[in-house]
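Dear colleague,

As promised, here are the two records you asked about, laid out in our usual form so they can be pasted straight into your sheet.

NAME FIELD: protein one
SEQUENCE, THEN STRUCTURE:
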Amino acid sequence: MYDPSALTSTYFPDRSARLGKHKIFIGMAPGVGKTYRMLEEGQRLRDEGVDVVIGFLETHGREETAEKAVGLEFVPRKEVIWSGRSLTEMDTDAIIARCPQLVLIDELAHTNVPGSEREKRYRDVEEILAAGIDVYSTVNIQHLESLNDLVHRISGVVVRERIPDRLLDEADQVVVIDVTPEMLQERLKEGKIYAPEKINQSLENFFQKRNLIALRELALREIADNIEENGIENHSRYCNIHERVLVCISTYPNSIQLLRRGARISSQMNGRLIVLFVADPGRFLTKAEALHVETCERLGKEFGGQFLRLESPDIVSAITEVAREQHVTQIVLGETQRSRWQLFTKGSIVQRLMRSLPEVDLHIIANSATID
């Protein structure tokens, strides 16, 4: 039976007054069966009398996936003209107007066509949830923002389409679709994931066994951490221990990598994230540097953090002041770029912080040149 405690919209005609429930199917890589499982559950609920529609489906030519969608109602996509080409996107307004109890939406991390009302599909999903409609969606682990650098180190692939980690935290249910690396490689060889001309290239690159093993472990660990955090959430309200993680960024490009690492530390500790940029009052930022700082601010807020910007000729004093005011327990910063002469005349930033904040733990991230 359709469980109203899991998906509220069955017994609430005025769904606009309530948020819809969100269930995410996540996997380690393309082809594990996320979309198939989502459709399977949609078919089961439809048979039980639930009003289910497909908001967006991408089969990638997989016959088994397409067959599993037979009998479910599709909300037609809308046409979008971009650069003289006719493209299609999910029609969020049409889904809300149709007002089903449950909508199935594939590829949560998708980036919409430029000029769309919302840049990312997950923003469309948030609109649908706000309308009181329940959503099932799919995503791969490599699309999580904070894992971007780690996935690149594992696979050598730069993932361009990403979602903020908060979506997993805010979801009502997250289901891991798990298969062994060997089984996934076999599916690939059988042509069940990509077209024949892409199989060998995929096996030699992203679908190498060592990559799949690492990504599988990453997916299982991420969801385990998510469950553990949700489990201790109520307990932490009664504890007097609140981790506060301060990430110190600069104008160096590796600040983004540093910020992601700090966000993961904060998430794993169920703590609060604070991002700090200390500007030199005697120096104007270039346009590129200003844009970089804006990117860090946006990313920090996507991680649910607070962004602070101060002007000070003494970066250590500024960090110390913020750490004390914000009751910071952890500080994340990168390896120094100072020359030996600067270290001799001004001292090490890490050493000065250790003397100023002996009660605060410092995380020095290797090869992340973020502090001048």
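NAME FIELD: protein two
SEQUENCE, THEN STRUCTURE:
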Amino acid sequence: MRTSTSPSEATVTWFKSSYSNGTGGNCVEVADSHGPVAVRDSKDPNGPVLTFSRQAWDAFVAAVRGGGLR
């Protein structure tokens, strides 16, 4: 994982998490491309971006779906 605000990450398409609520809280956006996966706080789109390898992101999603991260 690394933190970045590089221009290449600024040009990707961001998607809000389906678990984010509509009142402005708990908003996470993900930019899922063919390479690393970027994650940011939608309330601070110009703030830091965390990037994860595809393998690390897939393991995280599998753990969440499997109930391992409650």
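A couple of things worth noting about protein two: The first strand starts at residue 2 and ends at 4. The beta strands are 2-4, 15-16, 28-32, 37-41, 49-52.

Best,
R.
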